[in-house]
Amino acid sequence: MPRFLACPSRRFCFTRHLFTRHLFTRHLFTWLLFAGLLASWSPLSANAAPGKDAERPPNILFILADDVGVDAIGCYGGSSYPTPRIDALAKQGLRYEHGFSMPSCHPTRITLLTGRYPFHLGHPKWGTFPKADEQKTVAHLLKKAGYATAIAGKWQLVLMKDEPDHIAKLGFDESCVFGWHEGPRYYEPMIYQNGKVRDDVKDRFGPDVYVEFLVDFMKRNRERPFFAYYSMALCHDVTDDLEAPVPFGPQGHYDTFVEMMQKMDERVGRIVDSVKELGLADNTVIVFTGDNGTAFSYLHTAENGKYIRVPVFSMYHGELIQGGKTKLTNGGTHVPLIVVGPHVQGGVTSDLVDFSDMLPTFAQLAGVPVPADWKVDGQSCARLWGDYEAKPRTWAFAEGSRGRAWVRTQRYKLYTTGEFYDLVEDPKEQTSLTQPSADAAAVQKELQATLDTLGV
Ligand SMILES: [Ca+2]
Fold first, then answer.
1. What's the whole-model pTM score?
2. Do 311 and 434 belong together in one domain?
3. Distance 291 CA to ligand 1 centre (A)
4. I need a labelling partner for 450 at 20 to 30 A (CA). Which of 136, 147, 264, 441 fits?
5. One domain for residues 410 and 324
6. Has residue 48 been placed in a domain?
7. 49 lies in a domain?
8. Which sign does the torsion angle of CA 357, 340, 386, 367 carry?
9. With contact defined as beta carbons under 8 Å apart, do 80 and 317 qualify?
10. pLDDT per residue over 314-371, tens digit each?
11. pLDDT attached to residue 31
12. What sequence ranges are listed for the domain Sulfatase N-terminal (predicted)?
């Protein structure tokens, strides 16, 4: 039997528990009949392959750092910031060399939640989510599979004051997020919990509140599968569009990028430790990634009511480079992607992944099909996460803010504008290939066909 076909039996094992309880109270005869069916399914459950818990699908802890590209992470070749906890995750699990985001926050989050590229959703305006797709999110899909769902940190898909129930509408049972463009996210934070502003966090550091909330959520739901989405505030700089500058930290300025990286790594460690402390390490898949490349600059302080920006330069493979957020280059779209789990194959993989893959991947872990009418762009990338049937994708996609987009392989990248780059020879995309080799030309042709099929 193909491995993927074994999935429904595992899903069946989990759902049958809930289902049989329901039937028992409703109709004893039906229950007995169903019990007979269970007996016929049992051997499949007993022989569940590695990666498939006989009782329930795995928990998913999805950690999304803000404005952190590969150049900022030690195990990817960054050397400006110590990232011991993230590096330890990579050592323990699987590190992707070719994980790609959109070049900025909002389109990445849209793609993550829907499995669709933003242009297929009509390029949702910054800070909005398409109304027609509110029921078609990864959170709704996981809820359908019996998961408890929660998000902590950044939402960004609506102004919370306008629509405090927006997160619940999109499928999250619980939430603890900062008031994006409404108040501070770090010091003296403004935090909405389940749609209501908390009045007990003024003296707290926001990121500590987000971690605490999610750890508590995992603790309360440890007897059932859960989807914990840790949408980190770190390492994005402070909010800059309020009437007055937001409060400094105790040091008299905002955290430097170095300090933010350190705090980000610490909190990743804290939430990963909590999974172990709760006894959930054997049934939890942890994913760490970033929503776009490293910030180009950040707000370091404010004087006379005006913010002062400082550039972010990082040492990456021995070269000092500036963060590339918002650009479609590697600097803006090449993000860390590390996966840890009880059955995840360790090491480094060259598989391509983009954010449209998360929804179908998590659906496969949960054992639920993605409805065909959702028209998801991605595909499961779980082939190395356990015994899951999935094929590596042959291209990844990203789109910028002005309709410009690309598809790429590990080596070559073709833009909608026709520019074509060999990223091994020319990682900074300085010279578009006008006379590609025969091999490169063949890839170019395939990538063009992909762009044509996508209709971008
Ligand atoms: Ca971001």
1. 0.89
2. no
3. 5
4. 136
5. no
6. no
7. no
8. negative
9. no
10. 999 999 999 999 999 999 999 999 999 999 999 999 999 999 999 999 999 999 999 9
11. 42
12. 58-368
